[in-house]
Amino acid sequence: MTSAVVRAPDARTTSAGVPTAPTRTTQQALAEETMIVPRLKPVTCLAGPDRLLVSHDPRRQVEFDDSLGQVRALLLLLREGTRDPEALRRELAVRWPDVTRADVDDALNLLDGLGWLEDAAAPGQLLERQRERYFSNLAFFDLFSSLDISSEDVQAKLLRSHVVVLGTGGLGSSVVQNLAGLGVGALTLLDADTVALRNLARQFTYDESRIGASKVAEVASWVRAFNSGIRVQAVDRRVTGPDTVRPLLAGADLLIAAIDQPIEVDLWVNEACVEQGVPFIRGGLVYTRGLYWSVDPGRSACRQCLATFRSTPAGGADPEIDGWPRLLSTEPVNRGIGPVATIIGGLMAMEALRYLTGIVAPVSAGTYQLVDFAADCSVSADPWPADPDCPVCARAPQRADRTTRLPGREPVVAR
Predict the structure, then answer these.
(1) Phi-psi region of 378 (alpha: psi -120 to 50; beta: other; left: phi over 0)
(2) Could you read off the pLDDT of 195-206 as tens digits, one per residue?
(3) CA-CA distances (angstroms) from residue 325 to 226, 303, 328, 410?
């Protein structure tokens, strides 16, 4: 792994040497007298005679000019995580009387923008048992936390989320296992199939003793045993049109589709989700290429937009060839093996995490994410255009712009 050394972005220094930044996001919060106690996250810092190389993410080091030693002093104070901004100013002013509160606020804004700060005074969102259960989640979310958003805020958002999963076979059950690990608070699962021996090569939420049992009941049972804090509803039913999907969306934040039959099912799910403003993620396998894509209603192209695009020459339609008779055809075969279901299911769950928490923007909205299983499992993206005259998109409700800022800290009902 290599790392890049960059200058502190948009940084300048005061006459006293404190690094400052032009943006005012954190300063505005500080000006509102919000009680925060900035704490430096774990970082690596190499100290030269007049400069520092600091890294939170090993892929990137940030260089600071520090001929006066002021940046070093600030970082050491922040590492203790016991002082509010005014207390930081007072400590620095002992050695550098010219340091002002504005200097400190600008420095905090810069370091927060780098993702290096958290609020030591942020109110807890979780019970101690939840902190233990989601320990590794919280450590991962720490990479995205800031003075405004704590890692517990991100986990709390998941605990309040409700996801609908269509299909609990190989792909669907893999997604469900990941969602249960993330701590999604409520799951509605739909499937109408029963467990067969051939399923066990890629479906790991049931065993040989459960052959002939309802898949959705078995997966729901697995979730309850794995994480008793998750509310689970099992629906033993096939999707026969948009009306099958609509009632499932009440109170849902996201839908995941892991079914591909009947052939119209993507358009049915698209219609129901877009008109109710519920994002959905779809995944699957085509020969040796895994894929997932999603629709963010009112913000991205939808599945109907793709169907329209495919009917045009730009989308690959050829009227002459379309008229040719089919001489030979293949029957659909499920080629999903365990590693394929696990990888695609994990990627879909990661995209679900993006949608549910907003820590970063979704990567598959109106875009195929394609995984090459015939070679090195590399991922490529293939977006499709939105249709300005799409009749389905026209019914999407107005929704606020997507943001990576989470809402304020709300209480989580512990179960």
Answers:
(1) beta
(2) 999 999 999 999
(3) 52, 27, 9, 60
